[in-house]
């Protein structure tokens, strides 16, 4: 098989780049491929429009009767027929007469032969979309598909669920990294220590973003858009890529110079991690195109509806045929090191935001990639204070989590302002639990013996006034009944000390209000 698509729901993607842990890439790719078959098992979602152009593989959008509603450019090239000739036609018309698409179309995994001169062998996987349509993904094969491929994909769907568990565990670990780094920044007066803490925070938050996107892709969710400071992410990407553009070339007697022509621009709509990934991909491509050294120019320009970000190098450049195929998944000119996914996933990311990615190049004339980034239209979030929030009332707080790093992090954050007791299990937490002993109970959802929601319910039975706060690395749907057991929810990794202190303070106020009404 030429490659594996990392796809769930409409077009949630994991961006692949050299910073992503290899084990997560393999688990995510394999597991999500299985979810193409098992997608309809993962609960109901609100209908969403399907943008087949954002799918980084040949894809067709079908009605339930098998007629073609839409298809992307890659599908046109794969099938060797024009879009206008296929719309409204039966999907069977795409294949050789001797091949018949099985019924029903839902969740099929079928080897077919394209009705083209080369009679290319493909596998077509059909899966329901949230809007009740069908999405057909074409996987091209250089040789016949292996037997029992549907059974294999069904087994691999379990890896998608395992990926979600890995993401949850990593969020616990990040809490034990991010929270102490923030505390170091707050208590130290040494500039060098602050600088090191900031580096820890920046790196761990990028890793946290990758884990969040992996989890969202498994669950069929698209990362929520927020305002992004383009200039800040540019500097982060340049700093992160420094070993590639500075240290490695210098060790080989070469030099690559970064030139900045960065004018002030508005916030864009997207995600910090998504833009960082795109820039890392483009910077690495520019570096690879200049094996003997050269120059990389980054410039920004404000347009009426977009921010234009240009990355230009004076490397080897591309011929017209390479430019034409540059954004195809799995197409690469870097035979030994390239996956062929960098540009296709970068384009898909920007398309999902409402932007675009274009390229101009010529052989030996370098390449210029232009990011068209949509402006943020909503209100800007408030600026967070660097001083931790405090409450005038000292409270009694019970923290229940089976992960030692999470318990330790919360103790460090809260112990200066509250009396904190730690428990590693629900059974331990309930020992000596009597009315009035605690103001706030902070509970993890996944607990041994008794789940966190049941512990919260039991705590309220013993003390109806106590405030209950959920801390979790899982994303609960609004319809999830487990959320009803809690007054507030904090998402892991716990990376905002101010928010944590504020939520605990609100919990103490709520407990006092309830107690006064008794």
Describe the protein's architecture and organization.
By secondary structure, the chain is an alpha/beta fold. The protein has helices at 22-38, 73-79, 83-86, 149-187, 191-218, 230-240, 242-251, 272-288, 320-325, 342-353, 404-414, 426-430, 452-462, 497-517; strands spanning 59-62, 68-71, 109-113, 121-128, 134-140, 226-228, 256-262, 268-270, 294-302, 306-313, 356-361, 367-374, 396-400, 419-423, 440-444, 467-472, 488-491. The chain folds into three domains: 44-145, Beta-Lactamase (2-Layer Sandwich), CATH 3.30.450.20; 224-374, Heat Shock Protein 90; 396-517, Response regulator (Rossmann fold, 3-Layer(aba) Sandwich), CATH 3.40.50.2300. The chain is 38% helix and 19% strand. It has a five-stranded antiparallel β-sheet with strand order 2-1-5-4-3, with helices on both faces. Strands 7-9-10-12-11 form a five-stranded mixed β-sheet. A five-stranded parallel β-sheet has the order 14-13-15-16-17, sandwiched between helices. A hairpin with a 3-residue loop joins strand 9 and strand 10 (306-313). The longest helix has 39 residues, at 149-187. It starts with 21 loop residues before the first helix and ends with a helix.
